[in-house]
Design a protein that fits this description.
With 450 residues, this protein is of the alpha/beta class. Helix content is 42%, strand content 16%. 45% of the residues are buried.
Length: 450
């Protein structure tokens, strides 16, 4: 037997359990390219994606009537739980008053104050997605530094931003595999270095030609990779020395604590991007800037003159988004909520490490705030090149499909798990039990193959 046999077994189980799901998937093929509204929705390990009917707190139900403990939470937008009554009330109220005016509202003033207090940067702008916010940050960084090139980290993902679709291959910056419709050589204006490699970072910044470094404070899109001790302070020093702006993308690491990773760890950002969960799943993102950067933006805009900035979309900062953000910051993303999430994640991590010990697995667990990742390697990798070797597609498919068949959802792209304020200890125990059961099956199948 082999992993392929385990996948075949689990596929048969899924198909037998999900007749309505299979029927919906067949019908969807006729109206959606690839059978789904967004092709990412087909990235799950199941033969076809589940068709959701509803979700509440940290549970999701599908069309076949099965309930799932949800540790994916929409890949972060619903990080604070599905169907929050506070958000429902705010959305309903605002929808009755209008959702978009192309004008600021009283809510927007309060949201700006709340963002400044929570995350530490004084001035903010809205976008519709973190992709939009990252694009804006890159444009402004180039405008105020008069430098064309940006730097990103190998294995990063910053949304649908052309400049960031590059990786390292054999030490060289190259376009990401599978990139569709790209006609401009992205390597001309983007440099890539490994995470935690300060020597490579210093070398890349030495020419004083990099407009900004754009990175997550903890890598969460190529598996979870934690920063080495002192990495961020050394990076800040390098950026200050070379006149390079430091842009942190907190779209995932907002789960790290009440003020996000940057605030919780007393880092100094020139720009800060936050998306996904900031409005509870309503499409919205925000990005903040320091007072110095804001002054430089004003000067650059004056020098450039009037015309189309290329930054912004009509729906950005709309009244519905403002209402959602205000509700999240005041009623849902509270200190007690973060305390509960942190304790739940710590419990999950401790239980998973016990499983790894009991089953004598060469695996590890990485953890930051309410977010944890099971890594099929030990020790946990420090950079994307090493992490990619642990992301065995067959093993990931078998693992995820096994969990789905046992009523557990985790992020489909790797092994990321989120604890929400609505996640119960019982759900955590069911997740851990399912992972341990998989590990036993995994060893049985692979030892037979050997």
């Amino acid at each position: 037997m082999s992993l392929a046999d385990l996948i075949a077994e689990q596929t048969a189980i899924f198909n037998a359990m999900h007749p309505k799901t299979l029927a919906h998937a067949a019908e969807a093929q006729a109206v959606w390219r690839g059978g789904v509204p967004l092709h990412w929705m087909d990235d799950w390990a199941s033969p076809v994606p589940l068709f959701a009917t509803r979700a509440k707190d940290a549970t999701l139900w599908d069309v076949d009537g099965y309930a799932y403990d949800d540790f994916c939470l929409g890949d972060t937008p619903s990080m604070f739980g599905h169907g929050r009554e506070e958000l429902q009330a705010a959305i309903t109220r605002q929808a009755g008053q209008g959702v978009g005016f192309m004008l600021p509202t009283a809510d927007s003033v309060e949201v700006g104050r709340l963002l400044s207090e929570r995350f530490g940067l004084p001035l903010w702008q809205c976008a519709t997605t973190a992709s939009d916010a990252n694009r804006a940050a890159i444009r402004w960084a180039r405008a105020i530094t008069q430098r064309d090139t940006i730097l990103i980290i190998d294995g990063a993902y910053h949304g649908m931003v052309d400049d960031a679709f590059v990786v390292l291959k054999d030490g060289q910056t190259v376009a990401k595999p599978g990139l569709i419709g790209q006609v401009i050589d992205l390597t001309q204006h983007t440099v890539v270095v490994p995470f935690n490699d300060l020597t490579a970072m210093e070398s890349a910044l030495a020419g004083n030609n990099i407009a900004c470094v754009l990175l997550e404070p903890v890598m969460t899109n190529c598996g979870m990779i934690l920063p080495d001790e002192g990495y961020h302070q050394a990076l800040r020093d390098l950026c200050d020395r070379t006149g390079t702006l430091l842009v942190y993308d907190e779209t995932h690491t907002l789960s790290s604590g009440y003020g996000g990773y940057v605030k919780e760890h007393d880092l100094r950002a020139d720009m800060l991007v936050i998306g996904k969960a900031i409005a509870g799943g309503i499409p919205a993102a925000v990005w903040g800037v320091s007072a110095e950067v804001a002054a430089r933006m004003d000067a650059a805009q004056t020098a450039i003159g009037g015309g189309s900035s290329g930054i912004g979309t009509t729906l950005s900062g709309n009244a519905l988004a403002m209402s959602g953000i205000r509700t999240m910051l005041t009623e849902i993303m509270t200190r007690p909520a973060y305390d509960y999430m942190q304790k739940g994640a710590e419990s999950l991590v401790a239980q998973l490490r016990c499983v790894i010990w009991r089953q004598e697995l060469d695996w590890s667990v990485v953890h930051v705030g309410a977010r944890a990742e099971l890594v099929f390697a030990s020790p946990a990798p420090r950079d994307a090149q090493t992490m990619r070797k642990a992301l065995d597609p067959a093993l990931l498919k078998a693992f995820h499909l096994y969990l789905i068949n046992r009523g557990v959802l985790i992020a489909p792209f790797h092994n990321m798990m989120l604890i929400s304020p609505k996640t119960t200890p019982e759900a955590v125990k069911r997740l851990v039990d399912a992972i341990e059961a998989f590990s036993i099956e995994y060893k049985r199948f692979t030892s037979s193959a050997a």
